[in-house]
Design goal:
Radius of gyration: 13 Å
Helix content: under 10%
Number of helices: 0
Order of helices and strands: EEEEEEEEEEE
Structural class: mainly beta
Distance between the termini: 40 Å
Strand content: over 45%
Largest sheet: 7 strands, mixed
């Protein structure tokens, strides 16, 4: 059974930083692409950052230059380093795993990030 567990969310002020973590179990982590999504109240869930099984990264325009996604395959963990946070970054952040070959997808339960102005 695949499980994803996010942590690291919280309440911060504008300009501060947070690092989110997502630990995966039940799948061979290195064979999966890993994404961070976010969803603010009243908005659709949006892709924030992706790191492929091969280590290629992509970012939404709104976070480019401020957020960094990384992975540690030995720890089955993907990270999202978030710097220079803005109130518009406030959302529930979700971790998503996509198997590189089968396409099977799994979601975590989400972690709340709140940025005060």
């Amino acid at each position: 059974q695949v499980q994803l567990r996010e942590s690291g969310g919280g309440l911060v002020r504008t300009g501060e930083s947070l690092t989110l973590s997502c630990v995966a179990s039940g799948s061979i982590f290195r064979l999966n692409h890993m994404d961070w999504y976010r969803q603010a109240p009243g908005n659709q869930r949006e892709l924030v950052a992706r790191i492929t099984s091969g280590g290629t990264t992509n970012y939404a325009d709104s976070v480019t230059g401020r957020f960094t996604i990384s992975r540690d395959n030995a720890k089955n963990t993907v990270y999202l380093q978030m710097n220079s946070l803005k109130p518009e970054d406030t959302a529930v952040y979700y971790c998503k795993m996509t198997h590189a070959f089968s396409g099977s997808q799994y979601w975590g339960q989400g972690t709340q990030v709140t940025v005060s102005s």
